[in-house]
Amino acid sequence: MEIKLKTGEVQKEQAELIVLGVFEDQAGLGQSAAAIDQALDGQITQITVDGDFKGKAKELALLYTAGHTAAKRILLVGLGKESKFSLESIRVAAGTAAKRVHELGIKNFSTEVFGAGLDKFSQADTVQAMVEGTGLALYEFTELKSDANDNGKKVEEVTLVLSDPSGLQEGEAGLTAGKAIVAGTSLTRDLVNWPANFATPTFLAQQAQKLAESNGLACQVLDEAAMQELGMGGLLGVSEGSDQPAKFIILEYNANRSDLDTIVLVGKGVTFDSGGISIKPADDMDRMRSDMAGGAAVMGAMLAVSTLGLPLHLVALVPTTENMPDGRALKPGDILRLMNGKTVEVINTDAEGRLILADALCYAARYNPKAVVDIATLTGARTVALGDQAIGLFSNDDDLVQRFVTAGQKTWERVWQLPLFEEYADNLQSFAADMKHQGGKGGGACIAAAFLDKFVTYPWVHLDVAGLVSTETERPYTPRWATGLGARILTQFLRDWAGK
Ligand code: BES
Ligand code: MN
Ligand code: ZN
Hints:
By secondary structure, this protein is an alpha/beta fold. Helix content is 35%, strand content 20%. The protein contains 14 helices and 20 strands. Helix 3 runs parallel beside helix 4 (123-137), helix 4 (123-137) runs parallel beside helix 5 (168-193) and helix 12 (398-411) packs across helix 14 (487-498). It starts with a strand and ends with a helix. The site of ligand BES has 16 residues, from helix 11.
């Protein structure tokens, strides 16, 4: 699917369908809608006056023009209240409209750039949000569906029409950014959508190598022997019960540029989390194929950042393994030695994520980074605390917190800071080892973060995204299952850091 940008009057577009946005509380119609309204003898005014279409967010109305305009059909989409208009309103409206066009089986359509005339957001941000909403809504994962695409009903081309030619240059920048971000998020979704019998640690490593080859990145994949050498007892320990070999993926962008700031991203890559010996209940266990979504998010961000050519030295680390029960599996009470030499008593083998992350966080130190961000489906407690709407953020650096709050607001992958109080670590005292990896009754997300903190020697952010990376119900620009969450906020954070 191709998204194009041009300037002109959308009402003059020769198209199968054109999309117009309408605010809920607007006194009159916008310029293009007014022109079309006139051509249609006041049809748009009428359905709004009659109350059939109010312009509420996600509302749609399809009109047939019977030859009165250059376009065959007009699709009205609600933008919600103008006072609440945000980049997210644009994504939601663009996604809602694109899905409807897809259902109609129309191959190409033109659309207004919603809110472009308002001056509330830059033309670049506005166009970027249009591209994100459209591109992400039309995402499909059909690799394992035999009859996909059989009906030939697929949107092939979308034309975004900007009415003000002076916004074109900025708009082009938004188009480029939007496309890179859609590609990055789609990669994240693909990796998460592949079920665990396909998406093994070896598969993830191969995907990383492919990503590196096609985008000029450096890629190194450490095998278990190399992990042994480095003393990565956490990653190796978790992997013990699995027949699939663990991998430690290292992707590097601008590897030879010592003049640039170094940032390290770390993503949890558990390709299936059965819980190991402390096995999970059967209900919903299939969801645990998405336990590598943090790893997928950093790979998606890597794709977006390298496509955008950001002036940063960026490293992505993905410790990847299955967490399975078998005769050699890690047992509760076992003690592991992690990469920094510390010994850790394993309590519940289902708390595997923090063990593999701890080794990766130790490894990250060798880059002498300005900042390290880890992203992980780490604790069910994150879901209990924050539900569906906020990433749980922990950090030892207030400037980084602010940067993530800002990036979250812009991308609508919003964060909420949770405490990293020292006393949480009191729950991790062990009489047999340097520490336990789990303990306490409440505050599971905080205690997991307190554990990770013990392996950190630089400015750091931990993003707990458990429960946010997959969905059983589709949303305006998010089809069922993999949401791709993480790729966009990481990319935004990095763009802001690079000033691009
Ligand atoms: N991958 C899970 C966290 C998770 C839970 C993700 C629900 C998505 C939805 C993680 O490895 C885990 O099992 N965490 C345990 C930790 C506990 C044993 C201390 C949890 O949160 O229950
Ligand atoms: Mn687990
Ligand atoms: Zn897990």
